[in-house]
């Protein structure tokens, strides 16, 4: 019979402490098992990320397809509306508009007849001012009037109105040159000076002149083109 010797119990240790289980842990798994588990976790994460990317691409492709289909439908609707509009233009509803456009030449002919005696005062006054600028004459006032037409009477003078001119110049020679230049214009005739007085305070001559406006001054948008110069 074998005798077992027991170690004496330390009097400072209680029976509960002597009977407790020590919390000692040790990782006894082989390294290849730990590496295998880590590899599986990484593969699972990669698969999840790939699936997420594929889902995002699929959603984007679906939205793009829907947008393209909507755009195609809008294009077809617009094209159909345009086709219907062009077809409607050939109906009786738009025939009046087409006839009005075709009647543009007729309207122009009628306006030409109505405005046959149209006189562009702007063009005539610009011609007078241009001659005054060339001769260094300062114009102060321009008054114009048209001759009254007598019903049934035929005018053979070629005069359709009168233009009264007031201005200033350095001397009488300048005034005379200016009046002579007016005589070279085809739009006016019979220019003559009615008054010329020297202003001693301003040291220049004030004058008034009169010219007759001829029928050659008649011009306008629907008649003869207004010239920009004299003869």
State the gist of this model.
With 231 residues, the protein is of the alpha+beta class. Helix content is 47%, strand content 19%.
Topology:
Blueprint: H1 15-19, H2 31-88, H3 95-102, H4 104-114, H5 121-134, E1 138-146, E2 159-169, H6 172-183, E3 188-199, E4 204-214
Antiparallel strand pairs: 1-2, 2-4, 3-4
Helix content: 40-55%
Kindly report the spatial arrangement of strands forming the biggest sheet: 1-2-4-3
Structural class: alpha+beta
Low-confidence stretches: none
Largest sheet: 4 strands, antiparallel
Can you tell me the CATH topology of the largest domain?
Alpha-Beta Plaits
Chain-averaged pLDDT: 77
Whole-angstrom Rg? 55 Å
The helix tally amounts to 6
Reported CATH architecture of the largest domain = 2-Layer Sandwich
State the end-to-end CA separation: 161 Å
Hey, roughly how much beta strand do the residues contain?
15-25%
Overall domain count? 2
Shape: elongated
